[in-house]
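Running low. Any example?
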Amino acid sequence: MYSKAECTILDMENNDLEELSPEIFNGLRNLQGLYLSQNKLTNLPEGIFNELHNLQKLTLHQNKLTSLPEDIFNELHNLQTLALDNNELSSNLWRQHANIFNNLHNLKALWLWGNDDLTCLPTLPPSLEGLYLDDDNINSIEIHGLPLCKLNITELGP
């Protein structure tokens, strides 16, 4: 018999999902990869990822996300890859939630390109090695605690 606890990868891509319940991922304590891309999500409920302590890869690209709860990533200490590209996340979100990535101590790669009006970024974790901003009109970036020689930044505007 199948147990939720045994699941390590969950692919929910390209399903026209418009919303998710806050408890949808409860019990998936061994989940390492969660693929939610190419849906129609506009927001995510607070606490939706709180039980996913082993998650290493989260893809949310090509949705319609306009906002994120400030503590959405707080429990994802093992997350290494986060794809938020091609959404509608604006600089206002990053200004309001400047520390949204603070608890992502193992984050290596972050995709943010293709979002609305991306003129600033939140504080980035020191573990970050790749920041993907292709096609965005970045006017300013505040990078706190990151050695620039370690960070691979792709295309900072036209």
About this structure: The chain has a mean pLDDT of 87. The first strand starts at residue 9 and ends at 11. The radius of gyration is 15 Å. The domain at 1-158 is CATH 3.80.10.10 (Leucine-rich repeat, LRR (right-handed beta-alpha superhelix)).
